[in-house]
Amino acid sequence: MPLDPYFAPISPWSAGLGCHCPRCGRGPLFKGFLDLAPSCTACGLDYGFADSGDGPAVFVILFGGFVVVALAFWVEVTFEPPLWVHALLWIPAILVVTLGLLRPFKGVMVALQYRNKAAEGRLDSHTP
């Protein structure tokens, strides 16, 4: 029975935010903008276990929406600009915030799945 190589535990936050492998912290996690690579090029970890679903998008919407809406309210109350200024400010801001955070948040979700050995729920097949 071959033993698996030992990898020192790394923080899922540093691996996820850096978009690196959750086991070794060196190999890339993504092959495209949001597409996971099939496996780590450094340690060979198969990323088939990872299914972050809509979790990263929900967190990005909640966090990014809070920040941008709070800033929009502050600008409205402080400066009272016309509507076109709001459109000019907040449409690019929400795009930058959401697209900028989506990849690192997905990386964190995958790293947390690896760290906590998260898997799909299974029912026992035995009958009493």
TrEMBL record:
Taxonomic source organism: Xanthobacter oligotrophicus
Transmembrane feature ranges: 57-77, 83-102
Keyword list, A-Z: Membrane, Transmembrane, Transmembrane helix
Protein name: DUF983 domain-containing protein
Origin superkingdom: Bacteria
Record InterPro entries: DUF983
Pfam family, one: DUF983
